[in-house]
Write a structure and sequence with these properties.
Length: 144
């Protein structure tokens, strides 16, 4: 029996390099997070909350692309550390909103500054390759 050959793709494959780059970024974020006792999911939660006036758990789950149970556990840990707080919705008391606290916002700002080096390196590589960072961001956001 003859082995079938894999189908060749005419375009340049980008999935593997993209995945490897993402893993490298996650590694950098996790290393910085250890210094602040902050997981990658917790940083993503703070990121989502820093630019909003509170989000529901389902909205956070969408932003962080994680399992509902892991996002809930992360928010629980963050509530214990006073990085975020929960508030019952005024219009619908069944809804619970999560908000970033002053302490959480301060930690998010400090942590994001530390990661600025990674962001600058990425932007420089994109500019050197004549790739507009805003265009790449728009393309990547379509996958989220």
């Amino acid at each position: 029996m003859q082995k079938s050959q894999p189908t060749k793709i005419d375009s340049t494959p980008v999935l593997i390099p993209l995945l490897l780059a993402a893993k490298s970024c996650v590694k950098e974020i996790a290393a910085a997070g250890e210094r602040h006792e902050l997981s990658v999911d917790e940083w993503l939660i703070l990121d989502a909350l820093s630019s909003s006036d509170g989000l529901t758990m389902s909205q956070l789950q969408q932003h962080c692309v994680g399992a509902a149970s892991s996002i809930t556990r992360a928010v629980d840990r963050m509530v214990e550390r006073a990085l975020v707080f929960r508030e019952v919705g005024q219009a619908d008391r069944r809804q619970v909103f999560v908000h970033i606290s002053t302490l959480g916002d301060s930690l998010y700002t400090k942590f994001s500054r530390e990661l600025g080096r990674v962001e600058e390196q990425l932007n420089q590589e994109l500019q050197d390759a004549n790739i507009d960072p805003a265009t790449l961001k728009a393309v990547l956001e379509k996958f989220n």
